[in-house]
Amino acid sequence: MVPDHPIADLDHAATTSVRPEVRAAMAPFLDDRFGNPSGSHARAREAMRAVDEARERIAVVLGCAPDEVVFTSGATEADNHAVTGGLPIRSGIPLCSAVEHPAVLHPVHALGGRSVAVDPTGRIDPDALVVALGELGTPGFAGDAIGATEAETVSVVSVMTANNEVGTINDLDAVADIVDRVAPGTPLHTDAAQGAAWLDLAKLASRAQLVSVSGHKVGGPKGVGVLVVRHGTSLEPLIRGGSQEHGRRAGTLNVPGIVGCAAALESTAVRRDETNRRVGALRDRMADGLVAIDGVTETVVGADRDRSHVIPGICHLSIRGVDSEALLYLLDSHGVAASAASSCQSGAQVASHVAAALGVPADAATLRLSLGWDSTGADVDRALEVIPAVVERIRTFAGSVGR
Rounded to 5 degrees, what are φ and ψ at 339? Predict the structure, then answer.
């Protein structure tokens, strides 16, 4: 049932609404400009020109060459492609941080890879990364690790630009320094799906050989993303069956989606500074108000409330004495859309792997409140009105049941 009052969308980290300028850019390609860019006639050439123009515009935003841009169905596909190396799968053992999105974590584990511990803020632990890399050989130099075979060399290191649950920003330059020093020649991949809305990837991700981005996280359409593949990076196609994307990704190109993705990334870049200031102030007001509730803490923010290491759009809370499922249900019924960063499997609450890696107590609920390009003060007002009342209601009910 849809609430009969305005909905405060505090789940922008999951997806965003499409920007007006993106809709306008896509509209012609959903109507009479519907050509398949793989063709050779005029309408097909028109579609290919639109794709090429979008590729050039995206390259400027991401700080790469146009021919380094590979269009995908989204960041999940891009992450899987980067981790596996395509088909046939890249030899060796992939490494990633313990708090990666499942689109990275799952393929890493499926390939027998390893996850590396993070510090209390959610950044990858540099010492743990050095140890993990040191235990493996480097590409082409299996003998660097005692007794290592080619299959035991490190194949890729994947560290996200910003975490999708708690918002922590990684220092990718520091990660690249470690990889270059301990495992030279190993490609560095970063899942920048969450960071693209807030960070200048042309600078922050410039040393990553592989970069994943998703259109719908920045006010673009769903079903389209980008994998940046820097020159000199070896990568086989993950999807075969056509010569599209210079043979790196087969399939008819999603022209409206590609055009929309370019428009969204451009708008994000142009408005980034203003959006970061405005949304960051909204997030701070919301977080400051909610941590005043007894038993509520910010997961990766200390008592000094320094949030400079967190992207402006995310407030992640740990709440004592509250059940996550009940919390989400009641928030939704009162017009607040949020995420609890937990899942219900066979009736049992299972803690997020991110929360577990950060040592969040198992008996505490976690709540991710995420803002975006179109968030307003009214959204924050609603959160500050509803969340304290809902937390009190759950605690009161739990206390009465326990008596």
Answer: -130, 140
pLDDT tens digits, one per residue of 234-288: 999 999 999 999 999 999 999 999 999 999 999 999 999 999 999 999 999 999 9
pLDDT tens track for 162-214? 999 999 999 999 999 999 999 999 999 999 999 999 999 999 999 999 999 99
Cα 336 to Cα 41: distance, rounded to the nearest angstrom: 50
Cβ–Cβ under 8 Å, residues 159 and 168: no
First vs last Cα of the chain: how many Å apart?
Answer: 33
Tokens of 143: 């003998």
As a whole-number percent, the residues of the chain with pLDDT over 70 amount to: 91
Comparing CA positions, the residue from 63, 113, 59 lying closest to residue 84 is 113
Tell me the pLDDT tens digit for each residue of 100-115: 999 999 999 999 999 9
Q: How far apart are the C-alpha atoms of 144 and 156, rounded to whole Å?
A: 16
Annotated catalytic residue, options 64, 96, 315, 344 = 344
Residue with structure tokens 């799968």? 89
Per-residue pLDDT averaged across 341-351, rounded?
Answer: 47
Separation CA 114–CA 131 (nearest Å): 12
Type of residue numbered 293: I
Report domain extents, the chain. Answer: 8-16+272-402, 20-268
Q: What angle do CA 338, 18, 190 make, to 5 degrees?
A: 70
The closest alpha carbon to 166, from 26, 339, 2, belongs to 339
Please provide the average confidence, as pLDDT, over all residues in the chain.
92
Q: Name the pairing type of β-strands 342-345 and 348-351.
A: antiparallel
Residue 344 known to be catalytic: yes
Residue 93 CA to residue 181 CA, distance in Å, equals 18
Q: Which CATH number fits domain 20-268: 3.30.310.50, 3.40.50.300, 3.40.640.10, 2.70.70.10?
A: 3.40.640.10
CATH of 8-16+272-402, one of 3.90.1590.10, 3.40.1700.10, 3.30.160.670, 3.90.1150.10: 3.90.1150.10
CA distance linking residue 268 with residue 198, whole number of Å: 8
